Amino acid sequence: MTLLQVQGLTKSFGARRVLRDVSFSVGEGEIVGLVGTNGAGKSTLGDVLAGITAADGGTMTLMGHPYAPLSVEDARHLGVGVVQQLVRIDPGLTVAQAVFRGTAQAGRPQAELRPQAQVLLAEVALDVDPDTLIGDLPHFVHGLVETARVLAEDTRLVVLDEVSAALLPLEVSRLHAVTGRLSRQGRGVLYISHRLPEMLEVVDRVLVLREGRIALDSASADLDPVRLAAETVGAPVTLPPPRVASVAPPAPQGSPAGDDAPQELVPARATARPLPAQDEVALQVRNLRVPGRVEGVDLLLHRGEVIGLTGHRSSGVAEIADALTGELPAVTDELLLHGEPRSLGPADDRGLRLPAYHPDEDAYGVDPGETIARTLTQEAWGALTDIRKEIASLRGVIRTVHRLDVKTLSISTVFGALSGGDQHKLALARWMASAHDVVVLHEPTRGLDVRARMQVRQLLDEATAHGTSVVVVSVDPDELAECCDRVGIVSGGRVARWIDTRELAVDAVRDRIVEAATAA
Ligand SMILES: Nc1ncnc2c1ncn2[C@@H]1O[C@H](COP(=O)(O)OP(=O)(O)OP(=O)(O)O)[C@@H](O)[C@H]1O
């Protein structure tokens, strides 16, 4: 029986027509995938279902009754719960309070909330104490706390907006078990994700949102990840070729193109004849230890190389990254940066603090109310005294926006109004433009569509061709396979195994990573 019926939905933000004519249905017990490029309108559709924003036109029915929620509370009361993509929960709440906030139970004593919260947390396979403060939890579990929250009421339709984006394959399997349980209870699930291979494992049907319309509505059994990726972007898609490590000789100081050249945030493609990356070691770490967490880790990173690190939450992978960025005290037997001895731990002149990028909105260091132009250039328009420099800067911004395919009508759009993926792409490009030497990137393609992932891969290829060396820390096997030359599987505080990704097809590497990470 049909649970949700959506007919001719439209929604615009100013001149930007996001949803033009969206029609689809979700049946009772059905798990329906929703995919689309960054900025395609998936979250906007979720927001309309959640009562966060109203559609401009079209109709919806829920269990045969007209459905037009006026608020989030109204939507939940009517039976629709949405777990938003960039959910922010008050860090001062306990997990139990977070699960019941906005419900009839809110405000009851913690002791009364605790047992019920435990039941709901078990239902979403989240093993945390209901007394834990939200601020003490890693951000990736907030989506699961929110999933427990939508179950606290008799929700008929659950919308999961990229809840799996920051989860390990094992955690994604658990989320899928939860999704399956919801389906068996007769609830409908709308599952939004860019991680297509995993999505196809759980959904019954897939909707592709393209140019404001449902461009494809197909049984998942009739799709594979490559075909679905092509349907998503509306053009044939080939997986990126294996990385070929190569690096140009150091560039001469100064800008060869002169100060007036458009300063695109993406480094220009390397034209110099590539040299083998193995010629020069950028970072060498021998016997890295973080007491009680990491033991005996050796790392060798060549100039222009990208190595990946992955592992379970308690494997020590996060601690290795934090030791390299100086956030966690650690010791080594030897630490060389370009052959120069360095130390870890308290920052001093010789202390190593590798710069790190995190794909979390809070960590972008970007004011969401600032325009794209200002965000990318840090300049106040009109305050510049040289018109040629101003024009060159604006041209650079426009090129970056165009090249990264950011869905916006103007560079004066505020950063916070961009889709989650478009925000991430621009923040990463901005960060990479000033990233030199050896850097740590946490999940550089999280929440990005298939085309944007390739753009990030290109960003990496170009940065490494200029000599940058990168450590990618990730939960996503596709990301590791696409971006890295070698991937270390961390287990029990050690790198248990290295997988060489070069010269292998990306999907073959992905399978090896999943296999090794699951076995570790
Ligand atoms: N409040 C708003 N004001 C102006 N524009 C908005 C607003 N909310 C969304 N948009 C625009 O609507 C479009 C669709 O955004 P939406 O977040 O729905 O995309 P999405 O498909 O979820 O993308 P992603 O995969 O990157 O999360 C984007 O171009 C975005 O800039």
Fold blueprint:
Elements: E1 2-13, E2 16-27, E3 31-35, H1 42-50, E4 57-62, E5 65-66, H2 72-78, E6 80-83, H3 95-100, H4 110-123, H5 142-151, E7 157-161, H6 169-184, E8 188-192, H7 196-202, E9 205-210, E10 213-219, H8 225-233, E11 246-247, E12 275-276, E13 281-290, E14 294-302, E15 306-311, H9 317-324, E16 334-337, E17 340-341, E18 356-357, H10 372-377, H11 387-403, H12 420-433, E19 438-442, H13 450-465, E20 469-473, H14 477-483, E21 486-491, E22 494-500, H15 506-519
Parallel strand pairs: 3-8, 3-9, 6-7, 7-8, 15-20, 15-21, 18-19, 19-20
Antiparallel strand pairs: 1-2, 1-4, 4-5, 9-10, 11-12, 13-14, 13-16, 16-17, 21-22
Keywords for this entry:
Rossmann fold; six-stranded mixed beta sheet; 22 strands; ATP hydrolysis activity; ATP-binding; repeat; P-loop_NTPase; nucleotide-binding
3D architecture notes:
The chain has 2 domains: 2-233, P-loop containing nucleotide triphosphate hydrolases (Rossmann fold, 3-Layer(aba) Sandwich), CATH 3.40.50; 303-519, Rossmann fold (3-Layer(aba) Sandwich), CATH 3.40.50. Helices cover 31% and strands 24% of the residues. The protein contains 15 helices and 22 strands. It has helices at residues 42-50, 72-78, 95-100, 110-123, 142-151, 169-184, 196-202, 225-233, 317-324, 372-377, 387-403, 420-433, 450-465, 477-483, 506-519, and strands at residues 2-13, 16-27, 31-35, 57-62, 65-66, 80-83, 157-161, 188-192, 205-210, 213-219, 246-247, 275-276, 281-290, 294-302, 306-311, 334-337, 340-341, 356-357, 438-442, 469-473, 486-491, 494-500. The strands form 5 sheets. It has a 6-stranded mixed sheet, sandwiched between helices. The longest helix is centred in the last third of the chain and has 17 residues, at 387-403. It is globular. The two termini are 43 Å apart. The structure holds adenosine-5'-triphosphate. Adenosine-5'-triphosphate binds at residues 13, 16, 18, 36, 38-44, 85, 407-408, 417-422.
